[in-house]
Amino acid sequence: MALFSSLSRANQAVRPLDVGAHVFTLDGVRLGKVCEVHPHYFKLDVSLKPDFWLGRDTVWSSDLSGVHVDFRRNELDDHRVDEPPEFAARAWRRTDTQS
C-alpha cells in the first residue's frame, strides 16, 4: 500500500491543514483534530488521550471533510511522534548555548 500511496499522492489535491479539522485513517477511523500545524509536522488533539504529532508527509488528502492520512489505524504507532525532531534539536541548542 505504501508504494501505491507514494505514487498516487502526487495526483491528490491537498488543501492547507486547518486547525480544528478532523483526521481520518485509510480505514475511516477518526484519530482526532488538528490543533497545531508546522512545516513538517502537525499535532493532533486526541480526546481522553495524550496528544501526538504526525508528519505532513503522511497526509493523503485534505478537503472540506477533513484530513486523510495514508495509513490504517493499526499502523498508527509506526507514524506517531511524541515530539518532532526539529523541536528536540531546538531545545538542545538552547540548552547547549546556555552553558
Describe the structure.
- By secondary structure, the chain is of the alpha+beta class.
- It is built from two helices and six strands; from the N terminus they run αββββββα.
- A six-stranded mixed sheet has the order 4-3-2-1-6-5, with no helix packed on it.
- The model is unreliable at 1-8 and 92-96 (pLDDT under 50).
Mean pLDDT: 82
Kindly report the spatial arrangement of strands forming the biggest sheet: 4-3-2-1-6-5
Q: Determine the N-to-C terminus distance.
A: 47 Å
How does the major sheet shape up? 6 strands, mixed
The CATH class = Mainly Beta
Beta strands, count? 6
Query: What integer value in Å does the Rg equal?
Result: 15 Å
Give the amount of beta strand, in percent.
Answer: 25-35%
Q: Say what the CATH topology is.
A: SH3 type barrels
Q: What is the CATH homology-level superfamily?
A: PRC-barrel domain
The CATH architecture is Roll
Unreliable spans: 1-8, 92-96
Helix amount: 10-25%
Order of helices and strands: HEEEEEEH
Structural class: alpha+beta
Total domain modules: 1
Q: Report the principal-axis shape.
A: globular
**Number of separate helices:** 2
